[in-house]
Design brief:
This protein has about 90 residues and is mainly alpha-helical. It has one domain (about 10-85). It has 3 helices and 2 strands, in the order ββααα. The chain has helices spanning about 15-50, 55-65, 65-85, and strands at about 10, 15. A hairpin with a 2-residue loop joins strand 1 (about 10) and strand 2.
């Protein structure tokens, strides 16, 4: 039997180490949820100021891409729109 400071190793698993990992993940998940809520509030604020949140999400997604990747996607989109007769 182990005291509170001695890791118990049963079946190859160090219980204290496992508990520590699980608790760290849980804390990070809580932080992630809080950040997601903060982002939601910023989008609500933007919407209240007259911005289109769907377009804002697209802008955020595009800004994460490098220029070459963005240009490639735009070229393919343009090709598809032309093929469907939807391009100007």
């Amino acid at each position: 039997m182990a005291d509170g400071n001695t890791p118990v190793n049963t079946g190859g698993i160090a219980h204290d180490q496992l508990r520590s990992v699980v608790e760290r993940i849980e804390r990070l998940e809580e932080e992630k949820a809080a950040l997601a809520n903060d982002i939601k509030e910023v989008y609500a604020e933007a919407k209240g100021n007259g911005f289109d949140t769907k377009i804002l999400r697209t802008v955020i997604r595009l800004r994460k891409q490098d220029k070459a990747e963005r240009q490639e996607q735009e070229a393919i989109l343009d090709l598809y729109l032309h093929a469907l007769g939807m391009a100007e």
